[in-house]
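Hey team,

Filing this mostly as a record. A colleague (T.K.) asked me to run one chain through the structure pipeline before their review meeting, and I want the input and output archived in the tracker in case anyone asks later how it was produced. No errors, nothing strange. Just documentation.

Input sequence:
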Amino acid sequence: MAGLGVAGGIGKMIARGKSNREMRELSKQDPQYAANPLAAQRLSYARALRDARMPGAAAAERNITGAMGNTLATAQNNASDSSQFLALAGAAQGQAQRGFENLGMAEAQDQQRRMGNWEAALQGQIGEEQNVFNDQLRRYGNKVQTQGAIAENRANTWGDISNMGFGLADFAQAGGMKGMEGMFKKKPFQMPNAGYWYNNAPRSGDMNTFGLTPP
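Output structure:
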């Protein structure tokens, strides 16, 4: 039974060593999340549009101003008196004012749309950065779990080594080593007693000093 325990302990140590190597290799292969570059590009584009003016707004201003100037010039050339000119000029000014108000409302609506696009792009970029941070936490957690599992395997391995040592000691104390004589078919070496060495000690002139054979 002690031999089976030793063999089982060795097998578990080998299995744990293999498991530790595999966990270290898998830890190196843990994929890392990379932020989508399109999110940063979208944010940059949305920021540029947010700070820009509505397309066509400048041309609309020039058209409104030009139309009012043409109306005033026509009124000045065709008016029969000052009252008629003032009436035509007032109408031109009122029309231009309505044109500027409509343009301002259109630009305000366009600015709100642009701000919405910018906020959406900003949230997208924040989401990507959060994904990167969450992935870093995940990788750190995986690393901690892997190191913990490796440390546990190492501790269990040392425990098995200790148990194997106690098992071998119990095996020897129970006389297991004597049973191994039959396995090797040899009698374990026994130290001769003191009387043997005295009775067979070489005497003066004895040349067979090294020919002694213990009983």
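Quick notes for T.K.: The chain has seven helices and no strands. Residues 204-215 have pLDDT under 50 and may be disordered.
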